[in-house]
Amino acid sequence: MLESTTLQRIFQFFGLDPLDWHCISFGTGLINSTWILKDNQGNIKYILQRINHQVFKRPEDIAHNLETVGQHLANLHPDYLFVRPIAAMNGSTYLQCEGDYYRIFPFVKGSKTLDVVNRPEQAFEAAWSFARFSHLLEDLHPSMIRETLPHFHDLGLRYQQFTEALNGAEAELLQQAEKEIGFIEKHSGYVSVFEKLKRSGEFPIRIMHHDTKISNILFDAHDKALCVIDLDTVMPGYFISDVGDMMRTYLPPVSEEEKNLDLVVARPEYFRAIVAGYLSGMSGSLTGLEQQQFLYAGRFMIYMQAIRFLADFLQRDKYYGARYEGHNLIRARNQIRLLESFNQQQGRFQTILEETMVSTRR
Ligand code: GN1
Ligand code: MG
Question: Which domains are seen in the chain, by residue range?
Fold first, then answer.
């Protein structure tokens, strides 16, 4: 919860009268904390967020990126809905307070977020929106955008961190995670694929969102996507990050928290929706090599998340935290199961990819 003195300072900084607002905890993110601000009539008007300063070391870079992207879109695509944080009296869009950082976004009226994807149309809408976002930023040079989390989706580095976690782990934890460690090691070829793609010259650095889970899209009452949100990790990267994280989070009918692994399966009709939505939102901008990497995108992100959860388990949950004993091992198992289900169906997914590429071209 928020200390009431902190809340008072936030209100004061952003010029809001404390008597007018009720602050209620909201959202399920693992890193930042979120609240909604309701007025006295019970209407949600603002979203308040605390940026996790342990993770995001330079919040001023986030502010710089939001400003640069917002300005670019306002100039070239004035009809595009881009939600910018509100500015305080002194022009700053964030408040630094006792080592933490706070900012406030206007709430988009009539919008809602989804926690699970239960219709392929929702996956299509989300994929289209994330693609459109990157597409509209193609004429903004990636060097204009700062890396808010350096090497965030660098699979080589993640693998190295996993190896370090292995070397430093207690024997008891190593034993509990023996099977999962074996799986990660056996599939380390995914890391070399990434290194090869980066060197290929046909795999451009683009401005990507880097956190494309479904709750980062605002939908209207009819499940039409209104806009993308949670822009802290908007930074230069590769298209496989966004497409892959959509596969990781939209393909299964359950979340990464699910303990019953029988429920963790990759659903082909959602794969089709992601590919179709993404290709159409990108309007033909993907290179030939990129178009061939939709399956790899899924593997890349699911594998990386499995590594991150497993490394965190071995390091006693220092990054993600844990709500129960073995939580991050369960999360890693869930991701591994998803990757197995994905790979078991790769023939089918490849056919869907080819069909969708043909129908999108028409
Ligand atoms: C974190 O905080 P949240 O839930 O938006 C993480 C993502 C992971 C995700 C897994 C900055 O995102 O990379 O995919 O947890 N973000 C960061 O749930 O590490
Ligand atoms: Mg996030």
Answer: 4-106 (3.30.200.20), 120-361 (3.90.1200.10)
